[in-house]
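Researcher: Quick test of sequence recovery. Tokens follow.
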């Protein structure tokens, strides 16, 4: 039995279109360059060295990764700094998700969560002043910021915020930049990193 491929008119048009992939490569190249600049920013690096006093060089080496299928869509991410040592995790993840948004995540668990949480709680007023979201899912690797997985911190009391951390076993907070504001992406990533540095000190 032979399988017959039947395409709609829209699918027939798209399958003949080679321009999209060329444009996609150019976009990825530009965003990769942007992330490279963020990962090599001297001011950010200097401050991360102060915050992560005992961090090794590997932790402070920026790492850019890309993929084609995060929930069916391409993505780019910059981990800088990054430490994934079993349950002890510290990471700033700068994320571009095709068709959705730019975002920056702060992830803490284990000893690093114990170390930095008091500072974060002492600056809780700064968190509720901004459009920042906290992960409420027990799976810390979900980057889809929606009502099922994240909640705006400004809607939470500090007690409710701590309760979420206790329930999930980690802390992951995030900011978002809409793709329509791509011209501001570099400034957005830098400012998000500076903000996270501020609440960790």
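Model:
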């Amino acid at each position: 039995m032979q399988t017959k491929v039947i395409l709609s008119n829209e699918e027939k048009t798209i399958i003949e279109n080679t321009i999209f992939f060329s444009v996609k490569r150019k976009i990825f190249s530009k965003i990769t360059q942007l992330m490279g600049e963020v990962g090599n920013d001297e001011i950010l690096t200097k401050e991360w060295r102060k915050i992560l006093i005992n961090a090794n060089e590997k932790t402070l080496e920026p790492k850019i990764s890309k993929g084609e299928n995060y929930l069916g869509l391409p993505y780019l991410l910059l981990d800088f700094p990054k430490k994934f040592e079993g349950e002890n995790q510290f990471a700033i993840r700068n994320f571009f998700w095709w068709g959705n948004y730019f975002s920056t995540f702060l992830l803490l668990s284990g000893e690093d969560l114990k170390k930095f949480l008091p500072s974060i709680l002492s600056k809780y007023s700064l968190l509720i002043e901004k459009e920042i979201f906290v992960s409420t899912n027990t799976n810390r690797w979900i980057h889809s910021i929606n009502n099922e997985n994240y909640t705006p911190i400004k809607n939470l009391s500090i007690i409710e915020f701590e309760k979420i951390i206790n329930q999930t076993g980690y802390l992951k907070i995030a900011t978002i930049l809409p793709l329509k504001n791509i011209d501001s992406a570099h400034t957005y990533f830098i400012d998000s990193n500076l903000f996270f540095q501020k609440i960790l000190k």
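Residues 9-200 form one domain.
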